TrEMBL record:
SUPFAM superfamilies: Homocysteine S-methyltransferase (SSF82282)
Coiled-coil regions, chain positions: none
Pfam families: S-methyl_trans
Keyword Methyltransferase attributed: yes
Residue ranges of every copy of the Hcy-binding domain listed in the record: 11-125
Biological process per Gene Ontology, one example term: methionine biosynthetic process
PANTHER family according to UniProt: HOMOCYSTEINE S-METHYLTRANSFERASE-LIKE ISOFORM 1, ZGC:172121
GO function term, MF aspect, one: metal ion binding
Protein name according to UniProt: Hcy-binding domain-containing protein
Listed InterPro entries: HCY_dom (IPR003726), HCY_dom_sf (IPR036589), Hcy_S-methyltransferase (IPR051486)
Alphabetically ordered keywords of this record: Metal-binding, Methyltransferase, Transferase, Zinc
Amino acid sequence: MGHSGHQPSTLMTDLLRHSSGVAIIDGGLAIELERHGADLNDPLWSAKCLLTSPHLIHTVHTNYLETGADIIITTSYQATIQEFEAKGYSTEEVESVSRSLVRQEKPTTKDAKKLNMTLIVVAMS
């Protein structure tokens, strides 16, 4: 995901310039999710939480933004095709779930704009 009209390197340069050369990234997602009651005992831990408890992801990301995070990492990086197929999902179901995971991350982006904060969403897989 990115901001339209900007190259990724420009986004990072702009972010660092805006934040005096230091950007704060979110962290400790698993600990925070468990603190809010999530059961992460699954190879898809963060993706499972997006499917079963998206409100917890939203809460944790909002807390990160409110406490000064400049960069939020999406929680879909565990959502690989191989992991979903190992859990019995078909390729079509994996594609559908992947689209759903991206849609569920969007409310955090809207909240960041309301808080007037810079947000870069980094998806890893």
